Please model this.
Amino acid sequence: MIQKTMFNSSKRAVISTAVVFFSGIYLTQAQETKPVKDSTSDKQIEEVVLVGSRSGGRSKADSPVPVDVFNLKDIQQSLPQTNINQILNTIAPSFTSTIQTNADGSDHSDPAQLRGLGPDQTLVLVNGKRRHNSALVNVNGAPGRGTVGTDLNAIPAFALSRIEVLRDGASAQYGSDAIAGVMNLQLKRDTGKLTGQLNYGGYLTKAANDHIGNYDGQQFQVDLNYGNKIGTRGGFYNATWSSQFRDPTRRAGTESGNIYNAYNAIEKRAAEGGVNLSSYFNNINNLKGTAGEQDFVNLIHQYAQGVNYFDSGFQSSIQNASSITALQGLLGANYTDQELAYRGQTRKDFNMQVGQSKLNNHQLFANVEVPLNDDWKVYTFGGYSIRDGASGGFYRRPNQARTFTGLYIDGYLPEIHTKIQDVSLSVGIKGKWDGWNVDFSNTFGQNSFDYTIENTGNTSLRFNSPSSFKAGGLQFLQNTINLDFSKSFNWLEGVNVAFGAEQRHENFKENPGEEASYTAYDVNGNPQTPTSVNPTDFFGAALAGSSQVFSGFRPENKTNKNRNAYAAYADVEFNFTNWLLVDAAIRYENYSDFGSTFNYKLASRIKLSNDLNFRFAGSTGFRAPSIHQIYYNTTSTLFTTLPGASGPSLVEVGTFSNDSQLAQAFGIPKLKQETSKSVSTGFTYKIPAINLNITADAYFIRIDDRIVLTDQFSRPTNPTTPAQTALANEFVNANVNAAQFFSNAIDTETKGLDVVISHTLTKESFKFTNDFAINFNRTKKVGDIHASDLLKNAGLENTYFGEKSRVYLEDSVPKIKASLSNNIKWNDFNIYLRNTYYGKVYGADGLNGNAYDHQLISDKIVTDLSIGYDISKNFNLTLGTNNLFDIYPTKNVTSSTNNDQFIYSRSTAQFGQNGRYVFSKLTVSF
Model:
């Protein structure tokens, strides 16, 4: 792979533009504006942040660790994005999330990453309380493969007042998952008003409708928020309802592969004559040598004459063939274009649905606080969401054995339908007791992911196959009890002491699907056995079992596992002087399924002047293996290429837990926690005279024993040693051809730099706000792969952690991402402009047969523009666009397109492949 320098000309252009822009502001405004104490800029940079400190809040500038604050109430009206993942992907350079395509359940739950680390290495809080993870395990080929993240899109963005993003390791403060940082979602507390938004938009782009153009992917969203006071002591309730209806986009090219063969053509002519050829056999080999063989051959002869594009020579060969075997050697010939013309079809009729999935999403959230007296208050918050998604798989073409043409003579596009339900509820009481701030709470969360496979079939059932299957599902439950104490003391220049305890219970379930969704049947409709006679197509290829595109969870996959974690922490902030702050935290945590861990953090802020602060932080951290990763297991029938194979084929692939016999046979140990060491240093600087604020922070993160999902290990074909024989027997017992596992396979290092510059100019009815942010980030594997001796001796280290996995880890997320936003508020008009730079990435597929050569997907700049007008004090209308210039990623090389279906890579995280989005938004407030 060709390596390029981090700063090429495009990157220098982005940075230079920002420098020139802000320098110009400085030169012009410095001449016009006298320093004003307590300026608008002062108020902004003194904004209090809650995450990263247990002292009750601290200004961004005075925080010893970097925290970004995004006030959604202020910017949501102007943004084209409507869900949390896509909003943050646009406005936070250190955050990455793109809409997935053809990735099973991940199509409906976009994985998100912070500072280039995994979706499961960022802790999410809501109102300061730990948020539960998704039930989904991301097992498909995309960034974040093998991880379990938090489903941010289960929370309505309209319910949030702001999002705080702590860009620093915080495991010692908050526990597992906080290696990359912490996101704290603050719910609205507004009272006395009703606000709402109606949002309609879609993709007006040259690539819409499979590159025909025009318009697709329409979205309609309605949001309502209402709050009011409770009592006279400051109590309140605030509730939000949100509903989103999203149509799919289609970004495939034109199917270029073979679709119809000669047998398909003859089969079609027979069907038109009222004859279904598939009804004459269930296993073609059983028909050979019987009295029925000649009858079947005669039918082929008869209906072949109705295919008028067969030339005389080919017709003669068919008529002279006197056996099924002879016909099998002839009728596989490709006649796609001729048969398409006969049936009045085009190649685009056989396209996959590549692009965003169809989605209907409904959410209800509430935030309530009721004082009991002057010292104590009870609170509760949480919500419920239900999301129905539909996405397409790989088209089942008529010339493939996985298509039973007796039912689907033109093939079919199977669909994966998901129902994602999420419920959360936090209840607590907080107040003052003998000078101590006390907070006791219980937070419950549950996420479920249920699959229904539509417009599909169990091919082995032939005519008896249903077209819809309940394929089972996943469920994750988490309950967290917290007791926190904190108190400020007038020692030195102020000392804050905090300590507390946490108990967390987790439960993970896999629920099996209906029998036909995972079973392969014999010719009598019974489950297949090693000696059974099984159905075939005309050419003798086996008809696959289970629901096509997604095999249901099997009874042997059924899982109902629990674990408990107990933690205690202490956190002390010392203001030694009015210019030196030191924060020290320690945390002990014990898990019932793998053991305990102890972590610490030390952070400091040095105030060199009222406007200049330096900050430093160092910490250890950990991430417990998710309960999903420990116990998730499934067996699927996949169309994939195994190591050593010449091409893809249908194989049984199992994902096995690490306590399975098969994992032990490979020498794969049980999962343990990831551990990390991180350091960061940076500064904050403000220039009150021109309302300019600058922050810069560099960081280094070392993660040992990082958990990944391995590539697929094949069943040994010719075992020669007792160990290999034992391993082969385990494959036989599990009834699979290949296996994959979660493992602590590698160590990684991440280095990066965040720079944020913000500026505000206010002149009477005119307000001009500018924000520039850039993230430099690089993650790489270091050291050896942690493979067992058995794997090393067998030369399977690169299956334990393969080249594609390395690309997903190191090169599929931009190493540089920057944004420059400008907002002008003038009288009743609001103009918002944002340019976002996405650095280069690399595709995971090998080029020209070389698994270590990868396609460069070049850097791009995407522009958003919106114009809003206050029709009255109650109504605002905003019109705008995301991706104004209809920018697309670099096109895939032909070998990576799957017959021109994936025009753009689906295994990278840049900015998606949907093109220009235009929208209108009506905001009301009473």
In short: The longest strand covers residues 738-763. The mean pLDDT is 89. The longest helix spans residues 9-32.
